[in-house]
Amino acid sequence: MTVRVLPEIGDPPRLAPLEIRRHTFANGLTLACVEQRELPMVALEIAIRAGAALDDPRHAGRAVMVAEMLDEGTTTRDVMQIADEIDYLGAHLSISAGWDSTVLALHVLSNRLPPALDVMADVLLRPSFPQAEFERKRRERLSALLQDRDEARIVANRALARGVFGADHPYGMPATGTYATIQALQLADVRAFYEEHYRPANAFVVAVGDVDFQQLVVALDGYFAQWQGAAPPRQPVPAAPVPSRRVLLVDKPRAAQAEVRVGHTAPERATPDYFPLVVMNTLLGGAFTSRLNLKLREEMAVTYGASSKFGWRTQGGIFWAASAVNTSAAAAAAAVMLEEMNRMRTERIAVDELERAAQYIAYGLPRSFETAEDVAAHLREQMLHGFPADYWARYVDRILEVTPQQVAAVAARHLQPDRAVAVIVADRGAVEADLRARHIGEIMLTEIEA
Amino acid sequence: MQVEIPFQSMRLSNGLHVFVHEDQRAPVACVNMWYFVGSKDERRGRTGFAHLFEHLMFEGSQNVRKGQFDELLEGVGGANNGSTSPDRTNYWETVPANALELPLFLESDRMGWFLETITQDKLDAQRDVVKNERLQSYENRPYGLAYETIMKHLYPPTHPYHWPVIGWMEDLDAATLQDVRSFFSTYYLPGNAALTIAGAVRAEDAFASAEKYFGSVPAGVKPQRLAIAEAFLASDVVLQLPDEVHLPRLYMSWHAPRIFQDGDAELDIAAHVLGSGKTARLYQRLVHDLEIAQDVDAEQESGMLGSTFGLSITARAGVPLQQIEAETRKVLQETIEHLSERELQRARHHIETSTIDSIQSVGGFGGKADRLNHYFFYTGDPAYLAQDLQRYDTLTPEHVRAELRRITATPAVTLSVVPHGKLELAVA
Fold first, then answer.
1. Residues B312, B250 contacting (CB under 8 angstroms)
2. At what angle do helices B368-379 and B385-393 cross, to 10 degrees?
3. Cβ separation of B139 and A144 shorter than 8 Å?
């Protein structure tokens, strides 16, 4: 071949709609199941609609602690028996609390599902919350919080959340808690949270992989029929404060680089602006060829990578841009982030740039439906927000329908550079002068908090 | 354990090995390219080249302008990445099945139509990106410099595992355009590479496309491999590294048998038994019972020129690492004296789960395509997966104990990472 030309690319394949089998149990627990029989793997996940958003700031870390305590002992098994049974099966049972939900995720070869499910059900229904294990977990968490102070990126994320929401808002506190809140946490609080929220009408099951739907219904019915309880009343998250633009400079002496964040509040996951916002974010900082990454990494060569993200939640959320940059470029990077946010709001968006971003997301979607865990995660999102059965099949179309005008409109509506909080975690002496000279906003100097 | 990845193979006249695995489960196709060059092929004074080169490969080629590589792939909904290790460099692209020809075009262009497009500007820019990568991944991470400190002492300066893949900053600064071009022409050859295509493809079409895009890349001259003497430690090495950390951490590392050689599988099992999950020996004793540790880790890191068996234990604040070391050695001794069939079986079950896990994906790091190339590179047989898993099936607890006894009786590198001003917590 003497002439090298780009190949013609045909039409992309359609994402086949998931064949979702559903069942609602008498106690209100719901199940969504997708059978994928080619590989002997199962991802079985039980989600409780309760997470860190329910922790008032004084109780920050409680939802996470509840999740951590579930496999620390049941009425019939102690912590090591639980671990031994699951580990021996070569299975993984992870239990983790996010903002909106707590997920027990079982990952196991299909021929070992029954004994693994037995442990999972025990852990969910009959946790014993032993005092000794709770104290041990508390000590472990306090030690982890100390360790977190070493990681500039964790410090930056926490400072951003605190800056955007304030210390009086659940989102302003770390989901894992602070030194003070974990020291103060009582086992009674943990137990009470479990009793109030872990109820079948407040939960759903997602199963993907080499499972037989009918057999699974029978098995789950066997385990969960005795589980009773209505969903607790909805607890709204308070309104977020509306700050004016400012910069938090967090001193990390001798830090080799600077972690930079610029962020503000964002709409909830169910926002009608979701699809244009996803495309907008891809353009801004959600791909290698995004504006932030090309500017900060390829053009200015001050970072290994820059990105932006929406932290979608059922109630409210957060938007932020992030990068780890050369210390000397910290203030400049924050300025670039604000500039790019402004530009997205005010400049006309080129059609080809938009198409590339939309195609990246739309045509890339099938890649995220390969493994059982990936499909389970999508199904879980669908269930959590009550999206229709054909949500993922329609996703591609809805992304491709987004126009430059819509992107500009949602950018104007939701990107708020004038009300953003900038965070820089760096050696203060190396950054402060340049930062002051740029007049990005009122500067607040802080130390790293536990 | 019975797992396999069926494939077909051919070899182009220029030496490129091509493997194709069909999997119609998901409408995706992936291209996975391994170049048989890693940091082990560098020489002193010019470390970091293989990795720097990996970066340059994304900056365009004769028929792909700078920036277009990622634009084109993202435009079709594709993902891509690459990585450099001491042994090899790999690149992969995963795209919707209809777009398979695009990554084949891109990969072949940067194999055969690339040399002249490497410019001083590109070199300078990527050098800066790599410096930032180094800062982000190592200098600005707690314990970030531990690994390279260990390797520097585990391997003598004449052994290529001595230096980190990312290289030393001074060597990166000294790299000239000529150095970089000559590195490419020496190692980036079709006969020094393997291409795997996997996914919703038809083998005959995939082979035809491989021939179409790669067939006219000149074969070049097969690179010489330097003979590297096996490394060993004459005596224990004990090191201390103050760092910006709250919790002290102890690392213990030993030389271990090379990938797939006798002893390698035994040590994978030993690593599971010692460090994997709440039922692991080190976790039980140090984290749960004594509460002197925050976390434990054990790994058999297998390589072509040698492996490292390593333990790492993060202590609770203020706990002296001498205590951590003493308790760790007790646990090691207990494991050497007794290891149950149940522990062995548990480790086997984990390996089985993680193997099946990895073959859920055709692309990406560790996906099926990557695995075929991995086995081909290390053993000459892409179908080695079955033999790989078979190694674990034939082990007994006695095999594992014997190997653990053997290597832990050899000298170790012991590294203590401690908070500034707390050198007394280090093992001296």
1. yes
2. 80
3. no
Task: Tell me what the mean pLDDT of segment A108-129 comes to.
Answer: 98
Q: How far is CA A120 from CA A86, A101, A108, A202, B379, in A?
A: 9, 17, 12, 17, 41
Which amino acid would we find at residue B58?
F
Burial B112-130 (b: 16+ CB within 10 A, else e): bbbeebbeeebbebbbbbb
A15 or B326: whose pLDDT is higher? B326
B126-152 residue pLDDT tens: 999 999 999 989 988 999 999 999 999
Closest to B80 measured CA to CA, from B102, B62, B53: B102
Kindly state the helix (H) or strand (E) to which residue B249 belongs, with its residue range.
strand B249-256
Q: Could you tell me which residues are beta bridge partners of residue B17?
A: B11, B194
- Cα separation, A291 vs A281, whole angstroms: 10
How far is it, in rounded angstroms, from Cα A196 to Cα A191? 9
Residues 157-196 of A with CB under 8 A from B: none
Q: Contact B400/B263 with Cβ under 8 angstroms?
A: no
DSSP calls for B367-394: SHHHHHHHHHHHHS-GGGHHHHHHHHHT
Pick from A6, A324, A370: which is nearest to B136 by CB?
Answer: A324
CB atoms B74 and A367 under 8 Å: no
**Which of B135, B244, B345 has the CB atom closest to A150's CB atom?**
B244
Contact between A392 and A216 (Cβ < 8 Å): no
What's the pLDDT band for A181 if we cut at 50, 70, 90?
very high
Specify which residues B249 forms β-bridges with.
B314, B417
Per-residue pLDDT at A450:
58
Alpha-carbon distance A58 to A167, whole Å? 9
- ipTM value, please give it: 0.94
Q: Per-residue pLDDT for A1 more than 60?
A: no
pLDDT tens, residue by residue, A209-241: 999 999 999 999 999 999 999 999 999 999 998
Q: pTM for the complete prediction?
A: 0.95
